[in-house]
Amino acid sequence: MASRGGAKKELDPEEQMKRKHRAKCLFRALGRLVMANAYWLIEAVDQYEGLDDVKRRVEQAVRGKAKKKQLLSIQDKALLNKPAEERTDQEKKYIFRIIGGLKCFKRYPNHVKKKLAAVTYFKYYGPGRTIVRQHHEAHALYFIVTGDVVVSQMVFDELLQQYVSVDVGVMHPGDMFGEVSLLHNIPRTATVTTTGHCELLALMKEDFKNVLQASVQKQWDEVRRAMSAFTYFDALDEVARREGCIVAKMKSYEPNETLLGDGVGVANFVYFILSGRCQMIESLQVIVTTRLGRNYYALYDPYIPKEESEQDFDTKYFGAYKDLIKDSKSSEGRDSVVSKQQDAATGMKSESKVRASILKHPSTTRRKSSDPLARDSVQVVIEQDTARTSKESATTSIQISAEENKSKDFLRPSVHSEMRPSVRLSVITESPGMRRPPQNLKTYFMQVCQLNPGSSFGFGENMRDRRIVALTHVDCMLLPKIWLLQRNTANIWTRIQHYLEKKIPTKKQLFKEFVAARRWQEFREELVDDVIARSNTVNWTSVHDVPYSIRMEEMLDI
Question: Residues 339, 345, 351, CA angle at the centre, nearest 5°?
Answer without folding.
Answer: 115
